[in-house]
Amino acid sequence: MKKGIAASKGYAIGTVVLKENDELIITDEKVTDIQAEKERLQNALEQCKVQLTSIKEKALAEMGEEKAAVFDSHIMLLDDPEFTGAMEMEIESNNSNALKAVDSVAQTFLMIFESMEDEYMRERAADIKDVANRIKLNLAGKAMGLNIEATNTIVVAYDLTPSDTAQLDRSKVVAFLTDIGGRTSHSAIMARTLEIPAIVGLNDITSSVKDGDFIIVDGVEGNVILHPDEATVKEYEAKRDAYEKEKEELKKLIDVKVKTKSGKRIEVCGNIGKPEDVHKVIENGADGIGLFRTEFLYMDRDDMPTEEEQYEAYKYVLEKMEGKPVVIRTLDIGGDKKLTYLPMPEEMNPFLGYRAIRLCLDRKDIFKVQIRALLRASYYGNLKIMFPMISSLSEFEQAKSFVEECKAELLNEGQKVSDSIEIGIMVEIPAAAVMADELAKHVDFFSIGTNDLIQYTLAADRMSEKVSYLYNPMHPAVLRLIKMTIEGAHSAGKWCGMCGEMAGDETAIATLVEYGLDEFSMSASSILGAKKIIIDQE
Ligand code: PEP
Ligand code: MG
Q1: Residues with catalytic annotation?
Q2: Do the beta carbons of residue 491 and residue 483 sit within 8 Å?
Q3: Which GO terms describe its biological process (predicted)?
Q4: Domain boundaries 32-140, corresponding CATH code
Q5: Crossing angle, helix 34-63 and helix 86-94, to 10 degrees?
Q6: CA-closest residue to ligand 1 atom 4
Q7: 499 close to ligand 1 (CB < 6 Angstrom)
Q8: pTM of the entire structure?
Q9: One-character DSSP codes across 82-134
Q10: pLDDT, tens digit (0-9, with 9 covering 90-100), for 136-183
């Protein structure tokens, strides 16, 4: 058996098709006819464009706009003067052959991207590799793509590029496995969208199997079973069938407003980071948005988003949710989330430092832009504003009165603002949990942020692999704080939700229902499973 990273859930039983390594032999041979070599490169680029356009169309039909956009960025790379322009320069100035020119420019780009700290940017190196490889294969006259004839095929590759993944024929390919890759690589994301079981980061799967081998893929646990005996095959056939049946069954819950057996109504909501994420949340039958992490609007750009940009983003989500509750959290920057354009102090413990509401109360100029945008958007739906990292009543009061000030200013300007906006806090600092009954008298709601609450309660850094064994949501101290928070809210007649990862943890839901949690908010793909567990609770 081999263990890797479970990138896309599900089971598959089938035969291996090994994807050949497309490595080409690249020489330093110089060319004399520079013009002819540049034309050869141009032709290859044109061929790439035609191929990528057709891949993009297939992706658009099968996976939707967002996933197909990857190929737009590939097509754009082909026209990028810094990328393909640099290849021409390399031919011109060094008399390099086209293959060599493509290879050396790509290497330079890869070095830059792969050394970036940001995981997302590192993963984007895969896009550069993908495009460069396609140009090289076209230059070498080698066709791209996998020719798969048989059904129940399991594709095994060193790495699958996004374009390889998008081209997989779903009627034949039942899973894929790769030597390298992580959960956030594009191929892994696409596998989840296509709902193809996938395991990545298996290290040496390409040298452990050969074409035609019969294997089992357990995408739930991240295991590959090589040469299974008959009993194991039967066992996994049963698991696969049960899994597929359950997935179908769950769809029945899309429009169900869940209640426990004793009749308590519980809301199951979705967490989002970008306005577009709202679609998946709606598709999965969420009762609302329990957490919009607005800091993502501030990331991957060179300057602060303007009031107008933010207003459009919030309005979009509120309108799409058609009057259902939308909890929007104010900027939670700092800790592990930094902005390139906002200088921050060097701190020994950034998670205990200048972040979230602390930063916003200090930088009212930044805070004001967001609060004005939120208040203006409130007119278009059921907005609830939530402050992160509240540790004391005074912070909440300062933040709330700042919202009132901004509201008065907007009304003065003649702008429309809803007059029924609830204002609540995240309970993610133990102090807030301990003081929940007092805080509850002042706020409209709580949402428990277990991701931080656990790390602060157990003094176990949420980012550290070394202490991950201590990071336990079911630790009695954590459970006690959660219970206190829920009871504190209820004692003042307020509602209490949870938007940390624990809300979608199938092993924790029963306990949280028992404690009286009113709202669960989680990633879109966990919503239906959570609904199913909730309706089975007393
Ligand atoms: C949390 O801390 O549980 C939470 C939801 O916020 P974040 O993960 O963004 O810190
Ligand atoms: Mg948090």
Answers
A1: 186, 499
A2: no
A3: phosphoenolpyruvate-dependent sugar phosphotransferase system
A4: 1.10.274.10
A5: 160
A6: 449
A7: yes
A8: 0.67
A9: IIIIHHHHHHHHH-B-HHHHHHHHHHHHHHHHHT-S-HHHHHHHHHHHHHHHH
A10: 888 887 655 666 788 999 999 988 876 677 778 888 999 999 988 776
Could you tell me the two tokens for 299?
Answer: 């990331």
Nearest CA to ligand 1 atom 8: 451
Rounded-to-integer distance, Cα 424 and Cα 357, Å: 13
Please report the beta strands in 391-531, taking only residues with DSSP state E, as ranges in sequence order: 422-427, 445-448, 495-498, 519-522
Q: Give strand ranges (E) for 233-305.
A: 267-272, 289-293
Q: Looking at residue 32, what DSSP letter applies?
A: S
- HEC string for 362-403: HCHHHHHHHHHHHHHHHHHCEEEEEECCCCCHHHHHHHHHHH
Tell me the pLDDT band of 498, cut-offs 50, 70 and 90: very high
**In CATH, which superfamily holds the domain spanning 153-250?**
Phosphohistidine domain (3.50.30.10)
Cα(11)–Cα(175) distance, rounded to whole angstroms? Answer: 8
**Secondary structure (3-state) at 14:** strand
Q: Which residues surround ligand 2, an ion (CB under 5 A)?
A: 428, 449, 452
Superfamily classification of domain 262-536: Phosphoenolpyruvate-binding domains (3.20.20.60)
Beta bridge partners of 496: 446
